[in-house]
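Per your request, structure below.
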């Protein structure tokens, strides 16, 4: 099955997405997601100018060889732009191989290991009371796991607290907006939030929280300890992880389970965290960590240390990524959970998909391939719009702060 052509489709049905479409001499096409929030056009250029010319004429069945060619062969290894481009090629090739076999992708990985994929939804509110109401709404929709984020008194805007209800889009059109941050206010508020949420929702629902890298390791240790009574499923991105050792300090102070990895690109970003058992969940995802081929490698390393998967699944990952991720999740032996932030209706219309949600679980469907397609005519009606995530500055003196 020879690759005869490939192209990049950039569209913005509610937010920007970059999609790679590969065509073959068998008449089959494969799709891969290459979306990288706020840096979309860099990946589009990387693919169009540097990767696609190298793909034409290759055997689409040689997924591993093409992966190695693009990773080792480029000399410049790793990084989000490179790895998102490799991920898109890899995902499109798995889609093609599964279509050629007439099987849903998860069957090629080794078949289903479970009946469905447990997902967590995002409950957000301006204050504790409205966040509690949102958590209860998600519970009523059947979710077994819910992430709770609330506004913090004294801070005008807090990232992760939506402007809409079911769907919200963190990136804003134009140049990056500026938010303010105060660690003390956040640390005082968050245990109160989970005290209220846990008593309202009961013991049977898994609760999660995303810190967005805002804390130092010792502050994260203190928050983890303060949250222990509320039995969180995980505390996510407690501190930046460029220094993987930083998690040792957090670990020494709390038994709250730790998750990290949505901005990681390769196994090297998480090797020490996994091998030293400094985390409980690895959040690397198909689109940013080298596709199915590399994610499988990370999950296998993680399984040696009882670290489970918890892939990133925010709206800036397209339905193509979500479809591929759900096939991976249905198979991967050390599955933990999958994030599921619902896409807008416009996005869903541009990317028709076979995956479904029911009672807190998702299923990728039984369509050959990963089950996600693109309506190119509709996509063309939504051209790219410059949009960025906010930046954060410390409220008291304006210092630029971590994500
Ligand atoms: O591109 C950034 C978003 O995907 C991210 O901020 C969302 O932290 C996030 C999450 O856990 O979904
Ligand atoms: Mg996150």
């Amino acid at each position: 099955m020879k690759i005869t052509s490939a192209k990049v489709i950039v569209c913005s049905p509610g937010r920007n997405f970059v999609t790679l479409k590969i065509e073959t001499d068998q008449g089959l096409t494969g799709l891969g997601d290459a979306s990288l929030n706020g840096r979309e056009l860099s990946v589009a250029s990387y693919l169009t100018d540097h990767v696609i010319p190298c793909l034409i004429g290759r055997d689409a069945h040689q997924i591993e060889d093409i992966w190695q060619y693009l990773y080792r062969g480029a000399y410049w290894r790793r990084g989000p732009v490179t790895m998102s481009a490799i991920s898109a090629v890899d995902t499109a090739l798995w889609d093609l191989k599964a279509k050629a076999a007439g099987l849903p992708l998860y069957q090629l990985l080794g078949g289903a290991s479970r009946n469905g994929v447990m997902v967590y939804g995002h409950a957000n509110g301006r204050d504790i009371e409205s966040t509690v109401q949102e958590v209860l709404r998600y519970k009523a929709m059947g979710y077994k796991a819910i992430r709770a984020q609330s506004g913090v008194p004294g801070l005008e805007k807090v990232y992760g607290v939506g402007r809409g209800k079911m769907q919200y889009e963190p990136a804003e059109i134009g140049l990056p907006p500026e938010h303010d941050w105060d660690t003390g206010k956040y640390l005082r508020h968050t245990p109160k939030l989970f005290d209220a949420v846990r008593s309202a929702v009961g013991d049977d629902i898994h609760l999660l929280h995303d810190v967005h890298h805002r804390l130092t390791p010792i502050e994260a240790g203190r928050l983890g300890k303060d949250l222990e009574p509320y039995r969180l499923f995980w505390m996510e991105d407690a501190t930046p992880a460029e220094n993987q050792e930083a998690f040792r300090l957090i670990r020494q102070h709390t038994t709250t389970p730790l998750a990290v990895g949505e901005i990681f690109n390769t196994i090297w970003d998480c090797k020490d965290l996994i091998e030293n058992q400094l985390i409980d969940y690895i959040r690397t995802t198909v689109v940013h960590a080298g596709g199915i081929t590399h994610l499988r490698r990370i999950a296998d390393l993680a399984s040696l240390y009882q670290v489970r998967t918890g892939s990133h699944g925010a709206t800036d990952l397209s339905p193509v990524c979500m479809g591929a991720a759900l096939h991976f999740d249905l198979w991967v032996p050390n599955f933990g959970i999958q994030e599921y932030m619902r896409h807008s209706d416009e996005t869903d219309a541009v990317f028709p998909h076979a995956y479904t949600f029911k009672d807190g679980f998702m299923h990728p469907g039984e369509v050959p391939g990963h089950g996600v397609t693109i309506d190119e005519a509709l996509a063309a009606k939504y051209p790219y719009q410059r949009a960025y995530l906010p930046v954060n500055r410390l409220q008291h003196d304006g210092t630029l702060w971590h994500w």
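Residues 80-101 form the longest helix (22 residues).

Regards,
D.
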